[in-house]
């Protein structure tokens, strides 16, 4: 390690080197590396700058994420409300369909089917035919009474 005198060290620390007599003096001692003086705040300032930048960027990132989360939550809430409205509409349609189905079932139970209609039609034909036969019988009877009445009128006897 090289030991320099106080004057030589002061001369080396000047920004502008000059070729004065002080600098030309050589130091007596061993040869080695010169101890370099590091700036005290340089390393700390770098760490402080890094930490300051990191904290600013972290804060901005958190703010951005919160805003994005707020927007996404709002969209999700709007979607849920639309879903609830759609579910309400579907429920009302289902209630109407159930009401219509109940009405249809009651009408089916009350309505006549084809076999019932054919059965009633056959019975009506029988009733009509029976009435027609009775009418013919009645006409025959009335005709007989008219014949008897005409005989009585012509003969005068009963």
From TrEMBL:
The keyword Transmembrane applies. The chain crosses the membrane at residues 47-65. Keywords: Membrane, Transmembrane, Transmembrane helix. This is Uncharacterized protein.
């Amino acid at each position: 390690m090289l030991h320099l005198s106080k004057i030589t060290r002061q001369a080396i620390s000047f920004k502008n080197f000059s070729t004065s007599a002080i600098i030309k003096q050589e130091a007596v001692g061993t040869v080695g590396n010169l101890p370099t003086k590091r700036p005290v705040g340089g390393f700390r300032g770098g760490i402080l700058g890094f930490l300051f930048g990191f904290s600013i960027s972290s804060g901005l990132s958190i703010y951005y994420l919160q805003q994005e989360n707020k927007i996404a939550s709002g969209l999700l809430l709007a979607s849920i409300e639309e879903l609830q409205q759609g579910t309400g509409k579907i429920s009302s349609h289902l209630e109407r369909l159930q009401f219509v189905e109940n009405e249809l079932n009651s009408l089916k139970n009350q309505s006549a089917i084809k076999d019932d209609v054919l059965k009633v039609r056959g019975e009506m034909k029988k009733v009509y035919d029976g009435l027609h036969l009775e009418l013919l019988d009645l006409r025959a009877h009335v005709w007989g009474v008219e014949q008897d009445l005409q005989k009585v009128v012509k003969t005068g006897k009963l």
